[in-house]
Structure formats: structure tokens, C-alpha cells
Specification:
two-stranded antiparallel ribbon, 3 helices, about 40% helix, coiled coil, DNA binding, SpoVT-AbrB_sf, SpoVT-AbrB domain-containing protein
Length: about 80
């Protein structure tokens, strides 16, 4: 981990090791106690497909399960 300061134009330069590991594009998420940089994949759709490649249920099945779980939690 490294301490980084903004330059006089408000820019932030990430260390080379960080850029090599996570890439060059980030979402800036504002949190109550600070900010978080979330890497953005070059091809977000492909990244999602890779992330869920091992899921065997359809989107409809997952949606139905989520709806049922929410209703159960709400005291159906």
C-alpha cells in the first residue's frame, strides 16, 4: 500500500503495480468515511459472463428465488 497525493490539478496517479494488476479504468464510489476505486473491466459484459460461468440456473430461476427469499424475509 502506498500514500498518494493529488497533484495541483486534482489528478491522482496510481502506482504502476496497481495499474498492472487492476487496469486503467475505475469507478469512484463515495462512502460515508471515504472513497473507493472499483476497477472497470475492458469488456464489462464479458467479465460478468466469466464471473457467473459456473451458475447453472437461468436468470428467471435466480430472479424467482430472490423474490421468494425477499417475501419470506418480509414475513409473507
Amino acid at each position: 500500500m502506498a500514500d498518494i497525493a493529488l497533484d495541483d490539478r486534482g489528478r491522482l496517479t496510481l502506482p504502476k503495480e496497481v495499474r498492472e494488476r487492476y487496469g486503467d479504468r475505475y469507478h469512484v464510489v463515495q462512502l460515508p468515511d471515504g472513497v473507493k476505486l472499483v476497477p472497470v473491466a475492458d469488456d464489462p459484459l464479458e467479465a460478468l459472463k466469466d464471473e457467473f460461468a459456473d451458475v447453472e440456473k437461468s436468470a428467471d430461476e435466480l430472479r424467482d428465488e430472490a423474490r421468494d427469499a425477499a417475501l419470506d424475509e418480509a414475513g409473507r
